[in-house]
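TASK: fixed-backbone design
INPUT:
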């Protein structure tokens, strides 16, 4: 096994006060999970559909702002310069599409999971299985980055090697998730968001003020550093084609709208109005961190150079990828702030990673227990059986993610971007067309999803697997890809720029060439756009099924 790259500049030693902070934080998560533990599927998958808009907005923010946002975003800007801004643009713009086109409509459709929507909307067990498989794949790839972030932060706090830290942190995370389900996870996410945003903003303000970079608005004042850091921030961008910037931003935008653990948040609220407002609140809570991330990157790069005497530009042997991944903690450490304060900043990263892992593992467990086991294998499964299968999935997924995180294939932010690219290519077209074009049918959805999976998987085989498989690596030569032209236009991190339009076209073309979906399915789609309010536990299928006049409110 290859030992993962260490963050050499990080002060890896046991620190009592930060350790106490992290211990109390993790203990509180376990307590909250126990208090809100669930025994039924309604609480396990959708938190009883009773979450309010601000609480759900905080859960969206915590769910969203993973280690890739808290640690990885600043790291990407620090290591990749202006190219890193593509991640900020992509990870925020997608929420406007969610707000306008998907949030309320998904709530009105009103199922349990993202594969639930695909299976019922397109009347296809095969489509449900493909969506469930994609959900598992997204959760797996996305979670590896979170485990990596937990390990790096754990190193700083507890002074152990990264592998045992990954094992310990993932064990605690899996333990509370298997106990609590979506209800407990949502309550925890509100707490986790509070911890992470306070820790991050405190770090930005204190580092900026103590080092003379900024006063009251570090989010703007860091611009004074750009002249001094111009080379580090622009040189990496020179080596990245402009096409990659566009492809990355586009993939993150559409990927945002296809992530199952984000869309399921709209199933947990009381009504479609709450779904819209929770999306607005979620975007606001995300903005608080994203606006400040470039400032922390600039502070960290300048302090890295001043402290180590080396250029932060990685191509010149400066900052490593592991050090970029913890630039937020390094900035506080290099600013000579009290150890307990740096520990607080590190604890925020831990909370961010755990919150996102919670959402991912819950969606993965629901995909296996609800969409695969109950809907496809054992329709007579009891709620107890479903919950047990769900908890077993969380444990199994946790073990697989833990092992992979020992030697991840990319930086935290890049790992997460792979998952976004997959969601944007495979699931986003199904959600958008499924809700906005009633003639999208089973054949079109199957053709589009299979094609999307092929596009993404071939991009991973072409550009990522050669780093792990010697025979493939030898075949790539200096290009690093089996087919360089394919890697150039369909990179794993930005495969959606080509893949998503192609999937849209194929899905529409096949739907037009084959029979239209049943009338009842069309009525469900219309109901998703009806102005008539629905009950808290009511779904579009319920309304259509209860209709005795042959129409629905949306038909009038």
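OUTPUT:
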């Amino acid at each position: 096994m290859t030992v993962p790259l260490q963050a050499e500049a990080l002060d890896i030693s046991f620190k009592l006060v930060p350790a106490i902070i992290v211990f109390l934080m993790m203990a509180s998560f376990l307590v909250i999970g126990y208090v809100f533990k669930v025994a039924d599927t309604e609480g396990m998958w959708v938190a009883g559909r009773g979450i309010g808009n601000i609480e759900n907005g905080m859960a969206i923010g915590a769910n969203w702002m993973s280690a890739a946002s808290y640690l990885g975003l600043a790291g990407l800007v620090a290591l990749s310069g202006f190219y890193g801004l593509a991640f900020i643009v992509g990870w925020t713009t997608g929420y406007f599409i969610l707000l306008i086109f998907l949030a309320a409509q998904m709530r009105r459709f009103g199922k349990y999971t993202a594969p639930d929507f695909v299976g019922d909307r397109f009347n296809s067990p095969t489509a449900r299985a493909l969506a469930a498989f994609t959900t598992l794949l997204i959760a797996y790839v996305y979670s590896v980055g979170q485990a990596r972030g937990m390990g790096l932060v754990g190193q700083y706090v507890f002074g152990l090697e990264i592998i045992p830290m990954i094992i310990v942190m993932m064990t605690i995370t899996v333990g509370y998730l298997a106990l609590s389900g979506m209800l407990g996870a949502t309550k925890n996410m509100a707490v986790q968001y509070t911890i992470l945003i306070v820790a991050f903003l405190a770090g930005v303000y204190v580092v900026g003020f103590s080092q003379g970079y900024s006063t009251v608005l570090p989010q703007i004042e860091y611009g004074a550093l750009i002249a001094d850091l111009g080379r580090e921030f622009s040189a990496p961008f020179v080596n990245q084609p402009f096409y990659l910037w566009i492809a990355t931003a586009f993939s993150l935008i559409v990927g945002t709208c296809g992530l199952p653990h984000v869309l399921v948040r709209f199933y947990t609220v009381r009504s479609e109005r709450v779904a819209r407002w929770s999306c607005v609140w979620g975007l606001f809570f995300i903005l608080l961190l994203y606006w400040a991330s470039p400032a922390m990157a600039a502070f960290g790069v300048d302090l890295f150079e001043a402290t180590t005497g080396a250029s932060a530009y990685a191509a010149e042997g400066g900052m490593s990828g592991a050090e970029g991944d913890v630039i937020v903690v390094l900035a506080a450490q290099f600013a000579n702030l009290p150890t307990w304060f740096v520990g607080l900043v590190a604890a925020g990263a831990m909370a961010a990673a755990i919150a996102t892992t919670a959402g991912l593992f819950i969606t993965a467990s629901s995909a296996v227990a609800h969409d695969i086991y109950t809907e496809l294998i054992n329709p007579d499964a009891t709620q107890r059986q479903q919950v047990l299968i769900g908890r077993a999935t969380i444990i199994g997924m946790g073990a697989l993610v833990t092992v992979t995180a020992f030697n991840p294939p990319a930086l935290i932010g890049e790992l997460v971007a792979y998952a976004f690219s997959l969601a944007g290519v495979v699931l986003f077209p199904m959600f958008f067309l499924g809700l906005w074009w009633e003639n999208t049918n089973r054949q079109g959805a199957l053709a589009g999803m299979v094609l999307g999976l092929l596009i993404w998987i071939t991009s991973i085989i072409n550009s990522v697997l050669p780093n792990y498989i010697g025979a493939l690596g030898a075949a790539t030569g200096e290009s690093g890809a089996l087919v360089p032209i394919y890697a150039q236009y369909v990179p794993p991190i930005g495969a959606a720029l080509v893949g998503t339009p192609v999937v849209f076209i194929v899905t529409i073309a096949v739907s037009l060439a084959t029979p239209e979906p049943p009338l009842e399915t069309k009525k469900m789609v219309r109901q998703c756009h009806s102005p008539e309010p629905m009950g808290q536990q009511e779904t579009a299928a319920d309304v259509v099924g209860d209709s005795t006049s042959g129409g629905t409110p949306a038909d009038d």
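COMMENT: The mean pLDDT is 82.
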